[in-house]
Amino acid sequence: LELRSKKNRINRCTPVRQYSTDTNNIQEIALSKQISENLQRSLISAPSPYTEREAHLLYAFSHVVSALPMDILGQLHNFRNHLHAPSMLHIRNLPIDPILPETPIDGGRTKNKTTFVSEACLSGLAQLVGVPFGFTGEKQGELIHTISPVKGKEKAISNEGSLTTFSFHTENAYFNFRPTFIGLYCLRSDHEQRAATTVVDVRSVLPYLSSENIHWLQLPEYSVRAPLSFERAHGDVLWSAWRPILSGPIHCPELLIRLPDMKVRSPKANKAFAHFVEALDSHKVISNIFLEPGDLLFINNRMAVHGRSFFVPRWDGQDRWLQRMYVRADLWEARGANQQDFRILE
Ligand SMILES: [Fe+2]
To answer: Beta-carbon neighbour count of residue 52 at 10 Å?
Structure first.
């Protein structure tokens, strides 16, 4: 039973400029002007993450740790380590580069950005919650991903799209090795500031499900489709092995979905899935986060799924521009994935 009909349901959602739901799922930190300016001054000399990656990471880590007060370090520490921490950490007032070139229109890195303040801030903070890594097949194997609308791919249901809603998904759901956290660093908002990063914490969905629904969602009855880029490389449509949607203890479950591209193999599991998607699309459980320049959002990719509402690009060099980083608690389980480069996996 292939379920594709639920896509774009959150198009009906009218985002509001606030956290729309249970704010216990979001931890917020706002940096003072002074800390932000100090960070910008110290990170303006950061080495390039693209040509001197490890030097960049060490520089960023040491300067970010030095610049942040103990209480903020403590909040990052809690977010990383506590099993019942919020699934989102929203850090505001971070610095961006004093000279910002035009937003790329091809989804790739611009060569015109010659300082690396945002990259260093992202990678410094990311190293406080885990180990940054990437995939050779994702954004040319770079550690810092450019997320901007791509001209000609406006309707793509991916990070390259803009005019269509990007449905809820676990990052890299098809693969066994996935980021523990995703970091999204905003350099520019969309013109109308309507692009919401939509996030749902699994713990807010559970109260809407019956115990029978939960039972079926814990069984290996579901399959997710591989990313298009991966299918293109293999020349075929690829589906994962049958897996559960909810795994682990139910008071602290891990969630794994990729809407709309999922298959279900039995009617009872299908019914539970329909209830689950209905609960997921409810206004009550969706957090709409409108990222502004200098915002960094970390999302726990085990506990929460994310998507994006639609927005309208203008192709004037000032469109929405995020930088993304994948972070894993550690890379042990990926050993052997790429003998040449321990951080960029194949
Ligand atoms: Fe994503």
So the answer is: 14
* Distance between start and end Cα atoms, the chain: 31
- Cα 159 to averaged position of ligand 1 atoms, centre (Å): 7
pLDDT digits (tens, 9 = 90+) for 180-225: 999 999 999 999 999 999 999 999 999 999 999 999 999 999 999 9
Q: What is the pTM of this model?
A: 0.92
187 CA distance to ligand 1 middle (Å) = 17
**What pLDDT, in 10s, does the model give residues 283-295?**
789 999 999 999 9
Ligand 1 centroid to 303 CA: how many Å?
14
Distance 171 CA to ligand 1 centre (A): 5
CA of 169 to the centre of ligand 1 (A): 6
Distance, in Å, from the CA atom of 179 to the CA atom of 181, rounded to the nearest integer, reads 5
Residues 6+ apart with CB under 8 A from 176: none
> Could you tell me the distance, in angstroms and rounded to a whole number, from the CA of residue 314 to the centre of ligand 1?
23
Ligand 1 centroid – CA 38 distance (Å): 31
